[in-house]
Amino acid sequence: KAGVTQTPRYLIKTRGQQVTLSCSPISGHRSVSWYQQTPGQGLQFLFEYFSETQRNKGNFPGRFSGRQFSNSRSEMNVSTLELGDSALYLCASSVSQVFYEQYFGPGTRLTVT
Amino acid sequence: AQSVTQLGSHVSVSEGALVLLRCNYSSSVPPYLFWYVQYPNQGLQLLLKYTTGATLVKGINGFEAEFKKSETSFHLTKPSAHMSDAAEYFCAVSDPPGNQFYFGTGTSLTVIP
């Protein structure tokens, strides 16, 4: 069974632009969570979707948004990029809304210049 | 609020020596507990987890961890370190159990030949 896939793997954007990242969960998994990982802040929870509905949201500004499609694939969008948004963005999937475990993708490395 | 503390952001051990990575959490009820490993430029891989039942859990690559409710700890151990164990290790809790994940700040393990 294929793992969690994230595209693109690397991205370079300019301050003020917007970006969309994509995540395809493991087949059969219906929950997708997004995390931001930076050297200074570690892993921070962005939001979680289950069956196309946002179930939980972390403490990030409204520039960060996401959505989930009927096939469980998820996208996250960051508008008006700032230098501080440079990070590794990780997606994780779980079978259900009860997290007995989460499986992570390889991440998208976003660099904002 | 839930917190996860990993004592020691950097740990160095000699090859063949015992690996001990510490994790403490704050919660009024036993949460679900996890250890993940991250290799450079990769996502997080689940090492082991505790949800219910036996408090000593065994994971992949020879790692194990013991849930101690009285100490609110979930320390990760491995009897004999290999060079391939060099990586970043994250402790995580799901609190309430099955709900949002909270990650520690990570411990970088170096294995000295």
Key attributes of the depicted protein:
heterodimer; A: 113 residues; four-stranded antiparallel sheet; B: mainly beta; 12 strands; 52% strand
Molecular structure report:
- The complex is a heterodimer of chains A (113) and B (113).
- Chain A is an all-beta fold.
- Chain A has strands spanning 5-7, 10-13, 19-24, 31-38, 42-50, 53-57, 64-68, 74-78, 87-94, 103-104, 108-112.
- In chain A, strands 2, 4, 5, 6, 9, 10 and 11 form a 7-stranded mixed sheet that branches.
- In chain B, the strands form 3 sheets. In chain B, strands 2, 5, 6, 10, 11 and 12 form a 6-stranded mixed sheet that branches.
- Chain B contains no helices and 12 strands.
- Chain A binds chain B through residues 4, 33, 35, 42-43, 45, 48, 56, 90, 92, 97-107, 109, and chain B through 32, 34, 36, 41-46, 49, 51, 90, 94, 98-106.
Spans of chain B of 5+ residues with little confidence (pLDDT < 50)? none
Number of helices of chain A: 0
Q: In which range does the helix fraction of chain A lie?
A: under 10%
- Helical segment count of chain B: 0
End-to-end separation of chain B: 41 Å
Secondary structure: number of strands of chain B: 12
Q: Cα distance, first to last residue of chain A?
A: 37 Å
Q: How would you describe the shape of chain B?
A: globular
Mean of the pLDDT scores of chain B?
Answer: 92
Whole-number radius of gyration of chain B?
A: 13 Å
The proportion of strand residues of chain A reads over 45%
**Secondary-structure content class of chain A:** mainly beta
Average pLDDT level of chain A: 94
What order do the SSEs of chain B take from the amino end to the carboxyl end, as H and E?
EEEEEEEEEEEE
Looking at the structure, what is the overall shape of chain A? globular
